[in-house]
Specification:
95 residues, mainly alpha
């Protein structure tokens, strides 16, 4: 199996893995910000807010290059513009 196939498998399993890790947490635990200011739900919303081209470009660069230059984005702006911050975790995982 190629590195790309492995990456696709990991990405495909990510929602189920996050459900298993976060599904039993109460709302307070899901929304408590970490040291960087984002909660667990914010992180899941961030991943869901990335358009497929941004996410694909980043992953492709990491797989194909030894020292990739990963294009930067304004993560706060992208997350806020998505309207996903504050959505229920189950909805975010479905996205």
């Amino acid at each position: 199996m190629s590195t790309i196939d492995n990456a696709i498998n990991v990405l495909a399993a990510t929602p189920a893995t996050l459900r298993a890790l976060l599904g039993g947490l109460d709302e307070a635990a899901l929304t408590a910000p970490g040291a960087e200011g984002w909660s667990a739900r914010d992180v899941v919303a961030h991943v869901a807010s990335l358009d497929p081209f941004t996410l694909r470009g980043r992953i492709t660069a990491m797989i194909e290059q030894n020292n990739p230059v990963v294009p930067g984005i304004d993560e706060e702006e992208t997350l806020d513009a998505s309207g996903l911050r504050g959505r229920p975790l189950a909805e975010l995982l479905d996205a």
